[in-house]
Design brief:
Helix content: 25-40%
CATH class of the largest domain: Alpha Beta
Number of strands: 14
Number of domains: 2
Shape: elongated
Structural class: alpha+beta
Radius of gyration: 30 Å
CATH architecture of the largest domain: Alpha-Beta Barrel
Length: 305
């Protein structure tokens, strides 16, 4: 009997000591560095369809992760409010995005643990807070992985390369409607004929730029060549600085190309880049030989510095 009492007293002493040394936890705070622009991160928090993608769940209003129930309540500026429910406990956590540099951000997730039946003692509260922090860290890793892939934000696999060709010849025309395939390749054929006559060689695919103004469409077609050529009639030489260029391939028709170039504009604005020349589309697929627009492959090019 005496041994039992001594054992109980020792156990109680251990519990008291452990209880005394376990720190009181009232707040959970997790943060992560993301190699992506501030605007991209905030979009991923504000727009529900993007939130669903990085969270990997189908129902935005009832996001379950392990033992907790998360619900996106509100988002504004650089903050998202996320409600956390578990047992009889409920509270609002805040995800905050802070711009670090033009191309990087810090995301912080904070949660004040409220007193409730779910945390009726210090030990339980401590270990549960560790579990919630682990959940925060995992979901922030999911956000990081999602946002750092340009495909998820812009729908484009954007890469930065060096300009390979510096010499071009070009031709322009103006139409009252968006150029048809025949209109484009009529210009391409004029350039190709001139290149052959001049003893030069084409070094890459035909390039297209279309600009709409006052109900009219100004079209410029250019082809890179292996040497400088003089002007001839409405054919003019062009030069490009061998600097940086952003590239991405898209598959689809004219609307896909236009949308891709618009997303490129957004990317350039987000990252504060400047362009020394107009963006253009390289026609990888010969559109005269492939009538199915869904099979057209076009490389989008955006010179930057």
């Amino acid at each position: 009997m005496r041994k039992i009492i001594i054992g109980i007293l020792i156990l109680l002493a251990v519990v008291v000591i452990v209880y005394a040394f376990i720190p009181a936890v009232d707040k959970i705070n997790s943060n992560i560095y993301i190699n992506s622009n501030y605007n991209n991160v905030t979009r991923s928090l504000h727009e529900k369809h993007m939130w669903e993608q990085w969270w990997n769940e189908h129902h935005i209003n009832d996001l379950i992760y392990e033992e907790s129930n998360f619900a996106l309540q509100n988002s504004f500026l650089n903050i998202a409010e996320v409600n956390i429910k578990e047992s009889n406990s409920s509270g609002t956590s805040l995800i905050t995005v802070l711009q670090l540099n033009r191309d990087s951000s810090i995301v912080e997730w904070k949660y004040n643990i409220h007193s409730s039946e779910a945390y009726n003692n210090k030990i339980k509260k401590y270990f549960r807070s560790k579990e919630i922090k682990k959940q925060f860290e995992q979901k922030l890793q999911d956000l990081k992985k999602f946002v750092e892939d340009p495909m998820n934000i812009y729908g484009l696999n954007i890469q930065q390369e060096k300009v390979k060709d510096s010499s071009f010849i070009s031709i322009r025309t103006t139409l009252t409607a968006y150029p048809a395939t025949e209109d484009i390749y009529n210009l391409v054929d004029q350039l190709s004929e001139y290149i052959q006559e001049s003893g030069a060689k084409e070094t890459d695919y035909p390039m297209l730029h279309v600009m709409q103004s006052n109900g009219r469409y100004e079209i410029m077609v250019a082809i890179p060549v292996n040497k400088n050529l003089p002007a001839k009639g409405n054919i003019q030489p062009k030069r490009m600085v061998l600097g940086n260029i952003l590239v991405a391939e898209v598959k689809g028709g004219d609307e896909t190309v236009r949308k891709g170039l618009m997303e490129f504009d957004t990317y350039v604005t987000d990252y504060g880049k400047n362009s020394p020349a107009i963006p253009f589309a390289s026609l990888i697929t010969d559109r005269r030989k492939e009538s199915d627009t869904s099979k057209w492959i076009t490389r989008l090019n955006y010179p930057v510095f």
